[in-house]
Structures are given as structure tokens and as C-alpha cells.
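User: two proteins, same treatment. go.

Assistant:
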Amino acid sequence: MFLFLPNIVFAGLYYEYGFLNGGDTLVTGNAPANIYPGEDAVKAGSGRKLAFGWHQLLGKRRTHFFSASLGLLEDNIDSTGGDASLETISIDALYGYRFNPHRVGFGLSFHQGPDFKQDIDSTTESRISFENTTGFLLQYSYEFTPAFHIGVRYIDMEYEANDLEIDASGAGLLMMLTSF
């Protein structure tokens, strides 16, 4: 079986960038009018995501895929009354079915040490370090070319710290670039 592996596996590196939204609001703030007018918020499981990973197409007709990535998820506010941010390292594993140009997959998302920091007027800093957590991941993407995909993702997850439990579930839009 392993002698024929090069004939049935097509693999390469990929880059992922996206925006996720959802989860419970940790803090809101009013941004300066010249940057982002209006109210902004830091939410659990939300923000910008940047990840790098390994992507494999499986089978003779490459109808299945597996991908794994390591990334950073960050949400922040630079407000008139102070700054706040939530950062976490994410490790995602996704398995799915590919029917050109569509891909549907499911998997797990592990968030290592989600860390919330709030700095009010540069004098008072508060911090919540959440426990490592794993959630369920569901994703759909459209393949514009073999190397360029745009997709939507849903993550079902909760963050916990001491007796505090908050919803970190959310959905988002992702762009993926592969090396093949």
C-alpha cells in the first residue's frame, strides 16, 4: 500500500487569513473618530486569524482532504479610554470531502491559553488567562483555483477561567492560499 502513496496523495503548505465574529463580549469601547468611528468590542473567539499549515488531497481522484494548521487569533480595541485585547494560539485539524469547486469539512480547533488584557488609561491593567480548550469546527470553501479558496467557518467553543465560563463560538470568512 505505501509503495503507491505518491500516486494517491497530493500535499503542500497553505496560508490562511480571515475574520471571525461571535462569542460573548468581554469589553466595549469607543474608538477615536479618526480611526474607527463608533463603538468597538472584544469578543471571545473573534478577531483576525493568521495561520500556516499542511493540506493534503487524498484518494486517486483527490475527493477527500485533510488539513492541519497553527495560527494566531487576535481581537483588540485601541480606544480613547484604554486598550483591550484577546489573543490565543490556535491549532486546527480538518477532514472533509471535495467536490469541485466545493469543499465541506469538519474537525477540531484547539485554543491554547486564550489571554484577555485590558489597560485603562495606562494606569490599571486587568488580565484573564483562560484554560486551554477544544471546540468543534465546521467549514465550507469554494475553490476559485487549486491554490486559492474562500470559505466560511463555524466554531463551537467555550472559554473557562476559574468559575467564569463564556461562549467563544462564532463564524467567519477565510481566505486560503495553497502551494499547489
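Protein 2:
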Amino acid sequence: MAINCLLEDGFSGIDCHDSNPGARTFVYFANESEIVSYTGDTDTGVYTAITFTGGAGLHRYEIAKDTLYALDSLQGGDVDLSSYNHEVGFNIKSMGVLARNAIQDLNGPQMIAIVPTKNGEFLLMGKDNGLKILTNEGDTRSDNYGETVVLQSTENDEKRSFVFVTDEDATLAYLESLVVAS
């Protein structure tokens, strides 16, 4: 996407004045290599469909309440702010075999993540270059108990994108229909 040299639009606020910060207690991942295409508007970053290779789809991870986050940040120097880093982090409150293996599966492949927010947005992270694990800590201390994971994608051309069908419920139903493992 080309960078605009002139300001073109304003921002009049959000539809709901009582926004709820944070994300839900689950996140979707998919192997970037298994995505065939995205259907949607590349100018707005809103996608209505994701097509996968045969048998592939989304992997749903249940995570600890109030630990999931997504962020994107503009990167560059004083002269050229030209790319975005995407980051997704969360905690699974378990040190058991299943938690260990679920996190181990995330270590290696380039992935996209879809982060559902408490406001009904579905943030598509890592679409340009794929996310990879940046850090992972398994910790038995009470405050940090469990597996804490941070994934990052660097040098993305754009800020986060979105998955949106017609409304929040339809989008959630569509994403759930793509789940092949949870």
C-alpha cells in the first residue's frame, strides 16, 4: 500500500461511546503457508474471507482472561517511517503437557493471528510477513504462572487488518467454521 503524502480524512470517533479495552479469552492462528488468498478490500484492510489449502484452517487457542493483546507500531528512522511491527501476546495458565505442546507447535512456522477484541473487532495480525515466536516463558511463580508467549512480525507494509463478514456474530460464526484444531 502506498503511503499518502497528504492528509485525506478525519476521525469522528467510534460508534459506541463506551468502548471496552482488551481482547477475549481465545485467539486464532493459521499457518501462513496454508493460506491461498484473502477476499476483501486491500485499501481499507477489511477482509471477508480467507481461503486455505485443502484440509487446512484456523487453530483456536483458549487463553487466560485479560492476557491477550495485539499491537502494531510504526518503525523507521527520522527520515523514513515506513513499516509496521505486529505483535500478539498471551498467557495460558498451565504448565502441563498439553500447554507445553500447544506452545511448542507455535514455535517455528510463520503464522497469522486473528485477535477478537471485547469491542467486536477481529484483528488480523501478521498478514504481510507472518508472526513468529519472539519470546516464551514457562513460569511456576504465582503471578506469572503458565506459558507466556509473545509473537512478532516485522517490516509489514501496513497496520493491522481486519476480518469482518456482516456483523460480530456472523464474523465469529465464519471464523469458527474455519477451525480445524482447538
